[in-house]
Amino acid sequence: MNQLGFPILSLITYLPLLGAFLVATLSGDDAKAACKARRIALIFSLVVLLLGVYVWTQFNPAIAGYQFVEVMPWLSGINVEYRMGVDGISLFLIMLTLVLTPIAILASNGIKTRTRSFFAAMLLLETMTIGMFAATDFVLFYVFFEAVLLPMYLIIGVWGGEKRIYAAVKFFVFTLAGSLFMLLAVVWIWRHLGTTNMAVMAHANIPASAQTWLFLAFLAAFGVKAAVWPLHTWLPDAYGEAPVPGTIMLAAVLSKMGAYGFLRFAIPMLPSASASFEPLMFVLGVVAVIYISYVALAQTDMKRLIAYSSVAHMGVIIIGLFTFTVEGIEGALFQMLSHGIVIAGLFICAGIITARGESLALKNLGGLARNMPVFAAALMLFTLANMGLPGTSGFIGEILVIVGALKVNFWVSLLGGAGMVLGVTYSLVLVRAVLFEKYAKPDLAVLKDLTCREYAMLVPLAVLVMWLGVYPSSFTHAFDAPIAALVQAHTAALNPHMALAMVTAK
Amino acid sequence: MTDFYSLLPALFLGVGGMVLLLGGVLTKASDTTPGITFGAIVLLAVAAVLCWVAPDALLFGGLLKTSLFTRYADSLVYLAAIAALILSVDYNKRERIARFEYPVLVLFAVLGMIVMISAADMMSLYIGFELQSLALYICAAMARDSVRSTEAGLKYFVLGALASGLLLYGISLVYGFAGTTNFAALGEVFRAGARPGTIVGVVFVLTGLAFKISAAPFHMWAPDVYEGSPSSVTALFATAPKAAALALFLSVMAGPFAHLTGQWEMLIQIVAVLSMAIGALAAIGQSNIKRLLAYSSIGHMGYALMGLVTGTAGGIQASLVYIAIYVVMSFGAFACVIAMRRNGQAVEQISDLAGLAGEHPAFAFAFAVFMWSMAGIPPLAGFFAKLYVFYTAFNAGYDTLTIIGIIASIVSAFYYLRVIKVMYFDKGQPGFDKTSAGAGFVMAVGAFATIVFVVIPGPLMALAGEAAKALMG
């Protein structure tokens, strides 16, 4: 079956589901059950995290293809199999999910109503997300990709802020509409190839005339999910209205699903369309970086400011992916990991302020550095990482993307780099408004610094930010092989003669 | 003698139904309804087992034919009827319409459906069609003192009679031009093509059948009848007759008219597109949950017909899978509708569901599962039902049809989502009644099947495939 002789990926995927079931069926009065539910959810998410670390240690970075492969018959009538597997790309996205879920669960002490359902929904979300990254059959991928909507819709709509219903419905309808176009595209490829095995689909030889349409369909699905400008309008609402743990999962993990989709489907399957849409994607990326940075600068609410900064960073990721260079794609992937961790940290900081009963309007904050020094240090660290300061994780991703872009187009590189400067602007505005200046209200002066629970959330993230920033190759070496293979296949698909020459030269 | 073995389930139902009727009339006990309902459920369950034991045969000189296909469709009808009867016990009692005739009528309706499904001749088709329709007209008007129910019964009767008339007229035309009513013989005659008069007949037959499955543009009766009939009866209407009529639709189109594909294919496409569009658009404005489900079922019939359009065994298989999943989702959803009671009163407005998730999480979850499944969101069964029909239609080259189907399903997701929104997000008054055991049971079974389908899709798929092969010969 695989090198462990054991379906470890399925185990990691479905353990949280079991946890969700246990949590949902807890009996007893609400207060007691809430406590128990939180504990069960935390235990399950930590156990799967350990299993994930085990997979990482057993992972062979030299192999470009899928590892820990599981194959089982599934929809036998239409030739679809249950296939799971990870390569260097999906491994780290799974790790990201595994790390952030327990942190999001820790961050959910603000949830007071229907706690059992909430933790069940969080665990369900973890199952669906991991399943999506681990699926290597397209239909299976689609099932997980869509199923993510169900728990997320409830998390935003039931436990969200004031405009939660609007945000939840907008989120659902946008994503559903996008993904049905993807379904259509895939059914087309399915008809063309006769299989939905992603390893086979990646080398599909699709006629160039069809690629354009297929690419647009993928763009609709993954562009919405990744909140590529101008498909991002659901995002500030959803991020702003979702409860803090929901925002963490949305911003850190769910937004990566879109970028992952581009990397996994659009680029390898549709090389010529990807190449011809490269300018469009660059424009979208650059607009996201520059325009959205200005929009972020104009925000008056901390959560929405962070949300817009997230859209700007997605622009960097898109630029990186569509350079089709090893540096650019590695940078994009690195940026995905880094952004996931940093944005989670920032939203947790926002959550810490709301947990102390303060609003997130920037004009009502200020001066928190004085009596909350540790909090201030953490927020500072994540903000610096968000603007890409050397030594933090954000720097590595952005510099790689800029280098990759420089190889392709000087102006894209320059304008994308300009985004970093703008990132500094809004980041500093955020820091100044929250941590420095005078207290906007006298009661800010009596706020307490971090509690143990908050340390438990922020310390792992802070360590990861530094680790990724100082010693990036402990991560990059795992995705070197698949990305090199991807870039090579892309070049070969575009220039068959050159590829032939390369092969003969070897 | 073998004839009778093969007919055993139907005979059993007919005789059993009459015995129950006599029992109901003759017993002096004050309330015989629960006992008779229980008896009817047992009869249906035994008949369901018998139909799998009975051998394949061509009966009574080619009037009826049993095969794996009829068994598949029969089982769906039995399942739906059993679910509807379980739901009726408590509901009819609370609404004071508990009459022992109801289960007996359901038995006769089921008998009619069995004859319809097994029909191998236009005459037996019509007899089965009428037997089930007459029994169902009475069911619709069962709440005699309610104006709405009487109106529903009358509407159903008048429009149903029209449909029967069209069907009969179509049959007479077909007979007139082909000289036979036997399916197999008709198939032979049409192998050489058909004259225009025959085509008119085929169109009339198609119209009559489309009326019965409430496919657009012959759907007008459905929302009113669904809304007016007592909910327990609506639960039956939305499931058993639909499954039977769709099975009949498939067996007529793929049987005697198989060689006329070129003539009816476009018609079915139009019916499918209209049904999907009306199911998606007209449901948006509904505030009554029963009307909403009526429009939703119109839409579902459109998707189910998409499989038939291809005219292949694969397409029939997709339709059969669709209808099986539809039946399960529907009786589940109607179990939820029946459980909608506040302070002893049955309520039907979607807004009455507000706050349900806080008060009855399991009930709300089951309802949400059915809504999501009908919207076709994975990993629920409804998604796979749609995936199969889209896949077969697209593979057969019906690109536009598939795209329309996908768009309709995005639009319809919106109103299903609204039900969930009301249950989970809106604040409501407390005061939901406790769900009755019967409704809870049906709900749980339906939700379980809808969720678990993703894990074991194989058996149903394979069975539907075999059934489709049995139909295509």
Describe this structure as you would to a colleague:
The complex is a heterodimer of chains A (506) and B (473). Chain A has 506 residues and is mainly alpha-helical. Chain A has 22 helices and 2 strands. The longest helix of chain A is centred in the middle third of the chain and has 30 residues, at 164-193. In chain A, 60% of the residues are buried. Chain B is mainly alpha-helical. Chain B has one domain (2-472). Chain B has 20 helices and 4 strands. In chain B, the strands form 2 sheets. Chain B has a two-stranded antiparallel ribbon. In chain B, strands 3-4 form a two-stranded antiparallel sheet. In chain B, helix 4 packs antiparallel against helix 5, helix 5 packs antiparallel against helix 6 (147-178) and helix 12 (261-281) packs parallel to helix 18.
Question: Outline of this structure?
Answer:
The complex is a heterodimer of chains A (506) and B (473). By secondary structure, chain A is mainly alpha-helical.
Summary keywords:
heterodimer, A: two-stranded antiparallel ribbon, B: 473 residues, mainly alpha, two-stranded antiparallel sheet, globular
Major sheet of chain B: order of its strands? 1-2
Indicate the structural class of chain A. Answer: mainly alpha
Please, what is the oligomeric state? heterodimer
Which ranges of chain B are low-confidence, i.e. pLDDT below 50, for 5 or more consecutive residues? none
Strand content of chain A: under 5%
Low-confidence regions of chain A: none
Mean pLDDT of chain B: 89
For the biggest sheet of chain A, the summary is: 2 strands, antiparallel
Question: Biggest interface and its residues per chain?
Answer: A-B, 39 and 36 residues
State the end-to-end CA separation of chain B: 24 Å
- Determine Rg of chain A (CA atoms, Å): 22 Å
Count of DSSP E strands of chain A? Answer: 2
The portion of residues assigned to helices of chain A is: over 70%
Radius of gyration of chain B (CA) equals 21 Å
Secondary-structure element order of chain A, N to C = HHEEHHHHHHHHHHHHHHHHHHHH
> Strands of the biggest beta sheet of chain A: in what spatial order?
1-2
Number of domains of chain B: 1
SS class of chain B: mainly alpha
